[in-house]
């Protein structure tokens, strides 16, 4: 049996976590703010908003009849609207301009000006105005030298003291040029510079948003005529280089990017970009899309249940204040301008590293491997880890069982061989890996499947080393598809089909047809034949040189297929149905889902380490523990126990069984859902066990801050007492005191130990203020208020004038003392110890938990009590 502590463990590290207690805004909640009244500012679209300190500033736009140049201010804390203070003439009314913040000023560039009502004096501008928040002064900057062409519907950003202008519309054509000007110089002598852009520059476009984060500018979609798409581009300010962020070739089952659109908004927060609204064809979607810059995946943010989600809109504007996004105005249905303001509460969690952690098990020389795949007929050996393989494929799980049975039979044979000592036999049995043979498996394709087993992802381009749509990558992916079918991995099979159908083009369709026919992949062969005989593809493909080299049977099949009537049913092969694009059942079987089922169902069968927690055995798996926690990696590398048993603790604290199960769920499949009391045990676990980041701690902290209620506070109190968490104990006691009538009626209340009850009673006693108890010096008035004054009950003696203390308290039964006090009434009791007061108060409140004062059965007088600690 072994135990260890991580090298960097510091017992005080968990104490540095700051727990704050509400009220908190619900994560991912849309909330409608007060609308802007008409007398403050009219409804509008095509305006700009910027965030400065704790306020949102709105400038310009149009209300459907006229252009605007007013400045509105929304106070985020006060949730109130007002007009911005202005000193000097503002810019001319305009819309589709840009506005950015630099230091203590707002800078407004360009836009479309004129009278839209009379359709006169309409023109794009290239002027630059500065609004200084300190004194409300508008200043027009003057240029010397070259200037950018006048434009509107462009993008603007500030980086390193410079304002950058990109793309837009100049009145005749869309642009994709970039200019910059220093905002640190003299406003009277500004100089523009044209930026020399490199890389894969976005097409000419307008009505798109930009967002700045990680020293880069991001541009998503926009109006580009026939070239409009849903690509996301990144511009590096340091290199002046554009990169199209391409992820569609990576197989991982992630949601598709948002559809192409224009007039939308995009903001950056934490490690994500958030896209809202815009127009997609004839629709105005109101989904909020999130792009994770770490994992390069899109997702749709699910609003909280109590959200007031804004309707779809375009030409609105958004800005970030603190940890929230504010969306104002825009054009909604029927071309109506809006004056609504909405607030969206962001979440900010460290990313989930589950996939990366498991993927590291395959890097370099794999550690803790306990099995080998033997790829036939190459005899190629690939090391792997039994628990992960068994979790992802039932077919492979059965092969592992068969290999284990073969190994056991071999050990029995060796044990019967008298020439082999018991020690050697035992050593062989504990170190020899299981052997699983896989027939007709391409080594590269198999390694891709193994990568998918560990990370839920396959990159056919090999990190950009080859063309993901080329013949080489396509051939490998066909082999991956065959292995997915063999291993009964439906999700991977579906992803392979999606990929292969997406990459087929007139450049590679003949090679794909040839490989599909040779390898017996019927669905792909059928898809290629359909693609070739399409009216738009047939002539070009048949007249190509590659078609001349096509095998004669395939050539004949193509020609005959072309002669068939264009009826899909006549082409279809019943043995290869079309790819189910929206079948959620097919997409089940993600890494998280498979690991959850493995832990709950068959994991014990493949256990290779036993964790002892307070005398209870928990079956686990070395590879998974080591991949996720540096604590276990160090233990299994250097201190591997001979009996394969390890004691479990978090520092000096032994977690509860329930909390450790929550920890295992996080380790195995990244689950962060747990009761608040488990969060109290585990909030320091990331430090002790050495997780990749503090994601678990962030969720524990949030869970303790917002999910503690009177219904679960008893469990939290018991946990805080056990682990000596003073702050959390104090908070739990305060919550109990404030909701004592409800807490006292919970079934769990009757199950508490005497020590915990006394803690609660002490807190109740300390909570009583001068409005609910009388000082000893005022006790006379209490007793005199009773007419007639009552005699001191037996067992009590007078203290002062009309105040009594309990003598020989330990000789009396508490029930008798309580009954006597209630029956006689009107006595201020001074108890002699904290424990006596606590227990007395407990009985008193159980009898009269709905009252702040208590009447005797006759209803003539009040019973009050006073706390005094000797």
Automatic annotation (TrEMBL):
PROSITE patterns: BTB (PS50097). Keywords: Kelch repeat, Repeat. The keyword Repeat applies. InterPro entries: BTB/POZ_dom, C-type_lectin-like/link_sf, CTDL_fold, Kelch-typ_b-propeller, Kelch_1, LZTR1/Attractin, SKP1/BTB/POZ_sf. GO terms for cellular component: Golgi apparatus. GO terms for molecular function: actin binding. It comes from the Eukaryota. PANTHER family: LEUCINE-ZIPPER-LIKE TRANSCRIPTIONAL REGULATOR 1. This is Uncharacterized protein. It comes from Cyprideis torosa.
